[in-house]
Each structure stands twice: as structure tokens, then as C-alpha cells.
RNA sequence: CGAGGCGUAGCUCAGUUUGGUAGAGCGCUGCGUUCGGGACGCAGAGGCCGUGAGUUCAAGUCUCGUCGCCUCGACCA
């Protein structure tokens, strides 16, 4: 048995996940507890994510800024719900050098308060609105139990913050950015998501409403992959942000925030991975094509491999030739583990025929002509994307159940975790009751599912107000 | 914070019952042979056995303390 084999995913998914993170060299442990080192290969994936997302933000009119890392306690305290939500998990700075600070500073767990503090300084008139900001930073939340990518004490993310003249405009922004996230998840990451609204108990601290995209992982657990919040004018009132309106009267502006984090990388791993390791969506793969020379000491093999790499590189493909002294079999396994979408094998046999072997990470390999290899590779990359999306959709379809009763949920759970669509009366007691009796939690109230007449709450049997997706979650 | 488990080479671990020269596989370094699915030979490097005290002629092994990590609860985007 291969000593460095990855744990089979259906045997122990949690172990498999950690194995993949470590062995594919995405992250490594550090002596800083609860935090992770993102290694070059992992960071390169993140760079691709940030580049594409940042382009989408710019295209929707947003500008990048950077707020401080520290929040004075008095500033954090201003909005009551917000501080109650975050206070239990913030890290505090109490000393500057050797001197005790008069007012302690928290390390930002999120930056709403800092943005509010800034808005107050710069907004006077409706002419100053809207402000559409985003920042790419790290934040700190003092989590008790941590896992790579899914929950670590410090994590990289982007947080968009916008402020608007009217509630309607702010609400539209909230929904627009949720759509941006959903499009990114599906078109770029090949992760199908459900768009919906969070229940009252699950919404962001200080928000009027929270929307989320929910993805379903290979093992049937849900992952909140991105959130978008509408704040109304609550923060504006708490921070005393006012502007002079078109009617020459003072008014409070309306705000939003929205974010995705390195957790998306956890989503990629857990949605697309298999027993051989990582499988990366081509759009974010640091190496899209790896070229493995066979019998590379034979004349002409390496130059031909490099020639193919140059052609592909010129066509905009991220390509690598592995001319290390490892055996071809070792290289196949190595790049499969690292999730490289397409592999090209080139050996003496191919040279004479002007061919190479093109293998897809999602399965299948074929001899292909070296003429027009750029097009062949692009088709192959598209095929990998399509296969990933189809596989993820299939998994979600197989694991989604409609439930009328708690027994329906419990019975279905015996066949494995998944998503449960069930009606709910809107009472928090019933929401908790479902979790207590089945283990699944409310994920969101989906936009695209309607209640039917006569639907009753899955928990109490009274008239239902919402259709809700329930699932165990990361 | 509660309950359990584990600390020995870079990694995964054996050795602890019954105290007596510090081990294996993988990985790493060098040279050579290989190469279409995790190749092989030879030669090497690498350990205060988590840590402190005790028992003993002698402790990785026994006793007590302590620190760290993991799992399950609890808590929680």
C-alpha cells in the first residue's frame, strides 16, 4: 500500500479533508494555535479567486479600500446587537509596547464599525451617496474549535460595505451581490448553490436581513459559502451618520455588507475532491495543465514537452512541465492529488506520430494530435468544468429530500446527510425543535421555492409561513 | 468548561505488560541504473523518548506532578 495514500473519502470524510489539505500542500500547521499557514500552492488558488471576484466587484462599481486592523472598544460597543453577536469571539489588544492601553482595542472580527466611523466623516449630502467599497483583508474570530479553511481564528476574506440614499437601493445592492456570489460559485468554481434568506435566529449580528448562498458538500453537509446583509439604517442611527436629502432634510442612509472568505477553498475541496485527492475547477487551478515527459532522457522528449508548454502558455493556459527525476507513475499520482485538471503525457512513441496523451482529472485519457493542441486543451478544460458541475448537481439532487414530518427527515437521514425541504411556521421554538429532534439546522428560506396551500409546519403542524432548507452544516 | 485518548526521527507509528546498547516504514542527502500508473541498488544524515521530580546499580518503560495535542460533548459562521 502506498504510504502517503489519502484516506478514502467515504470512510472518514473529515480525515480525508485534512489529509488533502496537508498532502496537496495547501496549508500546514503552525505554532500559532487555531490559525493556518496557507502555502504557495494554496495561496495561488486564492489569488485566482480574488482576481476573478475583484474583477466582478469592479464591474459592479465597487472600489477597494483598507480599514485599520484595530477597533477601539467604544466603537465596537455602539451598535448593541452587533457587539452582542461578536463580543464573545474577539481578540483584545491590551498593551502598546510595555504600557497598558487606556482603552483596549479589538482585532477586527469584521469591519462594519470602522466603515461607519469613516462614513460619518465623509458623508454630508445625498450627492455623496452611494459609496460602494470593498476590502481584501484578514479578520480574527477567537473560535474554540478550528479546521483548515472552514473555521480558523484568522482568515482571509473580502468584505464589501456600501451605503445608500434609500432602503430600496440598499436592498437591491444586497441582492445584487448575492447574485454575484452565486454566479461566481457556479460559473467559476463549478459549485451549485442555493440562494436564500436566513431565519431571524441565524442572521448577522446587527442586520435587518441576511441572505446566503448554501452549497452541499460531497458528504451531504451544507456549507454557507457567502453572505450578503441588509442593515437598514440601524448602524447609521447608532453611529449618527446623516446626510442632507434632496428635500433639504436630514436623513439616515441605508447600508449593506457582504463577504466571502478562504472558506470557499474548503468548499472546492469538499465539493469536487475524490479518493485520489483534490480536483480543482480549471478557472482557479494554479496549474491547469501539467506535462509529464516519459523517458525524458531520450532525445527530443524534453524539448518537445517544453515546446508544447510554450504554445499553451502563449495561449493563456497555466502550464507546468515536470522534468524532475521522479517516475512517471509518481508524477501522475502527485498531480492528481494536487487537483491539476488536465495532464499531458509526451514520450518517444508520441514524437514520431506528432501526438501526445491528454488525460482529464475527472476521468478518461486519449491520444491527441499536437496540431491545434491549444484548442484541444481548452476543450479539455471546459470538459473538466462541466463534469465537476454535473457531478455536484447530481450529488445535490440525490441528497435533497422533501419532508412533511420530522420522521420523514429522520428516515431520510438514515440514508445519509443531505438537504431537507420542509415547511416552517416561523416560530423560533419550532426551528430549535427541528434541530433537537433531527440534528439538522435551518439553512435558508430559498427564493425559488413556494409554499403550497395547506402546507403545515414540519415541527408543530400549524400553518406554515416559509419553505426552509434544513441540513447539518459545517 | 466536562469525559476519554495520545505525546518516541521530518511524517505514520512499534517498543512500555515483565526496567538492561534507540527501532521500522515512508520522507530527506549523494552516486548509479530506470521511466506510458506511486521504480530499484549502494552509501549516508537525522532522537535529551513533551517536561519536572521520585524509585532503582540502571528508566522510553515504574510512581507522582506538570505542559501540549487530538476526539466527543458544550459553544459557534
What does this structure look like?
- The protein is of the alpha+beta class.
- The chain has three domains: 13-272, Bira Bifunctional Protein, Domain 2 (BirA Bifunctional Protein, domain 2, 2-Layer Sandwich), CATH 3.30.930; 289-380, Rossmann fold; 401-471, Translation Initiation Factor IF3, CATH 3.30.110.
- The protein is 35% helix and 27% strand.
- The chain has 14 helices and 23 strands.
- The protein has helices spanning 13-23, 40-59, 73-76, 80-86, 112-122, 167-188, 234-239, 263-272, 301-314, 328-337, 348-353, 373-398, 406-413, 428-438, and strands at 27-28, 37-38, 63-64, 70-72, 91-96, 99-107, 131-140, 154-164, 193-197, 209-216, 222-232, 243-244, 250-251, 254-261, 289-293, 319-321, 342-346, 355-360, 365-369, 400-402, 419-424, 441-446, 466-471.
- It has an eleven-stranded mixed beta sheet with strand order 3-7-8-14-11-10-9-22-23-21-20, sandwiched between helices. It has a five-stranded mixed beta sheet with strand order 16-15-17-18-19, with helices on both faces. A three-stranded antiparallel beta sheet has the order 4-6-5.
- Helix 2 (40-59) crosses helix 6 (167-188).
- The protein binds one RNA strand of 77 nucleotides through residues 2-5, 88-89, 141, 143-145, 150-151, 202, 204, 224, 227, 261, 263, 292-298, 325-334, 336, 345, 347, 349-350, 357, 473-474.
Overall structural class, as computed from helix and strand content, comes to alpha+beta
N/C terminus separation: 32 Å
The CATH architecture assignment of the largest domain turns out to be 2-Layer Sandwich
Low-pLDDT runs of 5+ residues are: none
Strand content: 25-35%
Q: Say how many strands there are.
A: 23
Count of the domains: 3
CATH class of the largest domain: Alpha Beta
Number of helices: 14
CATH homologous superfamily descriptor of the largest domain? Bira Bifunctional Protein, Domain 2
What name does the CATH topology of the largest domain carry? BirA Bifunctional Protein, domain 2
Shape: globular
Q: How many whole angstroms does the radius of gyration measure?
A: 25 Å
Fraction in helix: 25-40%
Mean pLDDT across the residues is 94
Amino acid at each position: 500500500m502506498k504510504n502517503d495514500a489519502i484516506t478514502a473519502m467515504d470512510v472518514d470524510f473529515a480525515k480525508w479533508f485534512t489529509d488533502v489539505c496537508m498532502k496537496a500542500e495547501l496549508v500546514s500547521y503552525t505554532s500559532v494555535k487555531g490559525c493556518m499557514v496557507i502555502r504557495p500552492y494554496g495561496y495561488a488558488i486564492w489569488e485566482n479567486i480574488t482576481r476573478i471576484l475583484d474583477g466582478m466587484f469592479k464591474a459592479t462599481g465597487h472600489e477597494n479600500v483598507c480599514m485599520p486592523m484595530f477597533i477601539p472598544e467604544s466603537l465596537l460597543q455602539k451598535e448593541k446587537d452587533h457587539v452582542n453577536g461578536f463580543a464573545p469571539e474577539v481578540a483584545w489588544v491590551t498593551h502598546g509596547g510595555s504600557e497598558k492601553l487606556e482603552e483596549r482595542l479589538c482585532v477586527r472580527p469584521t469591519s462594519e464599525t470602522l466603515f461607519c466611523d469613516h462614513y460619518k466623516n465623509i458623508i454630508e449630502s445625498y450627492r455623496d451617496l452611494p459609496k460602494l467599497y470593498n476590502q481584501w483583508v484578514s479578520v480574527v474570530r477567537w473560535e474554540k474549535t478550528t479546521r483548515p479553511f472552514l473555521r480558523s481564528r484568522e482568515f482571509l476574506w473580502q468584505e464589501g460595505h456600501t451605503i445608500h440614499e434609500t432602503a430600496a437601493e440598499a436592498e437591491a445592492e444586497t441582492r445584487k451581490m448575492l447574485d454575484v456570489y452565486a454566479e461566481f460559485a457556479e460559473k467559476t468554481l463549478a459549485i451549485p448553490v442555493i440562494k436564500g434568506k436566513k431565519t431571524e435566529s441565524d442572521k448577522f449580528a446587527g442586520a435587518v436581513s441576511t441572505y446566503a448562498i448554501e452549497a452541499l458538500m460531497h458528504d451531504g453537509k451544507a456549507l454557507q459559502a457567502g453572505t450578503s446583509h441588509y442593515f437598514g439604517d440601524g448602524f447609521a442611527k447608532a453611529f449618527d451618520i446623516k446626510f442632507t436629502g434632496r428635500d433639504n432634510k436630514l436623513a439616515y442612509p441605508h447600508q449593506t455588507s457582504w463577504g466571502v472568505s478562504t472558506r470557499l477553498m474548503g468548499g472546492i475541496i469538499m465539493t469536487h475532491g475524490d479518493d485520489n485527492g483534490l480536483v480543482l475547477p480549471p478557472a482557479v487551478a494554479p496549474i491547469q495543465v501539467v506535462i509529464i515527459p516519459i523517458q525524458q532522457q531520450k532525445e527530443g522528449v524534453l524539448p518537445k514537452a517544453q515546446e508544447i508548454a510554450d504554445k499553451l502558455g502563449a495561449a493563456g493556459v497555466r502550464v507546468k512541465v515536470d522534468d524532475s527525476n521522479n517516475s512517471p507513475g509518481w508524477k501522475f499520482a502527485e498531480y492528481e492529488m494536487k487537483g491539476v485538471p488536465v495532464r499531458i503525457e509526451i514520450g518517444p512513441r508520441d514524437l514520431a506520430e506528432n501526438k501526445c496523451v491528454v488525460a482529464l482529472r475527472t476521468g478518461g485519457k486519449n491520444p491527441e494530435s499536437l496540431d491545434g493542441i491549444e484548442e484541444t486543451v481548452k476543450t479539455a478544460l471546459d470538459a473538466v468544468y462541466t463534469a465537476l458541475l454535473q457531478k455536484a448537481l447530481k450529488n445535490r439532487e440525490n441528497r435533497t429530500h422533501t419532508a412533511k414530518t420530522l420522521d420523514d427527515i429522520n428516515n431520510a437521514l438514515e440514508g445519509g446527510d443531505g438537504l431537507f425541504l420542509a415547511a416552517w411556521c416561523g416560530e423560533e421554538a419550532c426551528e430549535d425543535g427541528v434541530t433537537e429532534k433531527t440534528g439538522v439546522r435551518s439553512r435558508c428560506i430559498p427564493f425559488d421555492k413556494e409554499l403550497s396551500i395547506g402546507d403545515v409546519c414540519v415541527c408543530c403542524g400549524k400553518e406554515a409561513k416559509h419553505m426552509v432548507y434544513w441540513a447539518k452544516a459545517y
